[in-house]
User: Which sequence fits this backbone?
């Protein structure tokens, strides 16, 4: 397939991506920042009334069973999916080529498929102070009962639109536009200085 | 000011964009009725109290919403999807919409 001929993807964070411990880490590192670099990031949108058919297609293609309800999601191994708007879902996989896997099942009668693999950057924040740092950025409730495991949220930080999925009790994956990713990353590093952070 | 999006739950007003008076009724595009077009473009109730409005959750799920807001207190009395036939799917919105 065409993927084999694609050049290796470069990270937009690279000039400001410095592995190691930073900030106030003398008493320990309280958050770990990393770029997860999934091979495929897709946006799937169902026409009104076709939502359940789309959820079934996602299950068939990826094996991920999306829970009912707004912002419901699931994260498992190298793949994840979550709702980010009515009838709309972000689906990703660590491997490239997920768009091809959906191409046959995703007929025009059900909805649309947009391949954002090169358009988004995924930043992971993990650790005991992850909720604390996130709460400085986004005006939403990050407590586990309000933002359950696997769930997704659409929000923004100073007009940088962000999708957030909780992929662990103290871990979040943040999807930002690739062109804004470095600026967001620098702000996230700065916000993590007070708790001590490690870039992996 | 918080607006409870039927999809996303309660969010700060900064995430929303005001899309105008929700009482307007747009004439058919081919309509020659000048009174109807005049009313659509210019006539506003401008109430001191509850007001029907259209908002977009532009900094979130991007859904268009039908909102009732009190213009004196800024209290949000109800929110629902502007697109008909869509029920709230978020338990956080229950009791508010
Ligand atoms: Zn919303």
Assistant:
């Amino acid at each position: 397939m065409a993927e084999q001929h694609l050049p290796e993807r470069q990270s937009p964070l690279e000039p400001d991506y410095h592995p190691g411990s930073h900030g106030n880490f003398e008493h320990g590192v309280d958050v770990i920042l990393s770029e997860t670099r999934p091979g495929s990031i897709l946006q799937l949108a169902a026409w009104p009334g076709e939502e359940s058919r789309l959820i079934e297609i996602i299950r068939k293609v990826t094996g991920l069973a999306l829970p009912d309800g707004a912002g419901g999601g699931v994260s498992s191994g190298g793949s994840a999916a979550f709702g980010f708007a009515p009838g709309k879902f972000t689906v990703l996989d660590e491997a490239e080529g997920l768009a091809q896997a959906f191409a046959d099942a995703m007929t025009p009668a059900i909805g649309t498929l947009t391949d954002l693999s090169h358009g988004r950057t995924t930043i992971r924040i993990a650790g005991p102070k992850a909720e604390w740092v996130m709460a400085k950025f986004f005006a939403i409730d990050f407590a586990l009962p309000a933002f359950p495991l696997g769930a997704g949220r659409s929000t923004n930080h100073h007009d940088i639109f962000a999708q957030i999925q909780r992929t662990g009790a103290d871990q979040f994956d943040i999807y930002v536009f690739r062109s804004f990713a470095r600026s967001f990353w620098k702000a996230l590093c700065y916000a993590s200085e007070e708790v001590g952070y490690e870039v992996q | 000011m918080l607006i409870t999006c039927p999809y996303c739950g309660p969010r700060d007003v900064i995430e929303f964009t005001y899309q105008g008076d929700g009482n307007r009724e747009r004439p058919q595009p081919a309509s020659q009725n000048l009174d109807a077009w005049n009313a659509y473009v210019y006539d506003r109730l401008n109430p001191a109290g509850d007001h029907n409005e259209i908002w977009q959750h532009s900094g979130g799920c991007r859904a268009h919403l039908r909102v009732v807001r009190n213009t004196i207190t800024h209290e949000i009395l109800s929110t629902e999807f502007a697109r008909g036939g869509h029920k709230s799917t978020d338990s956080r919105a229950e009791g508010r919409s």
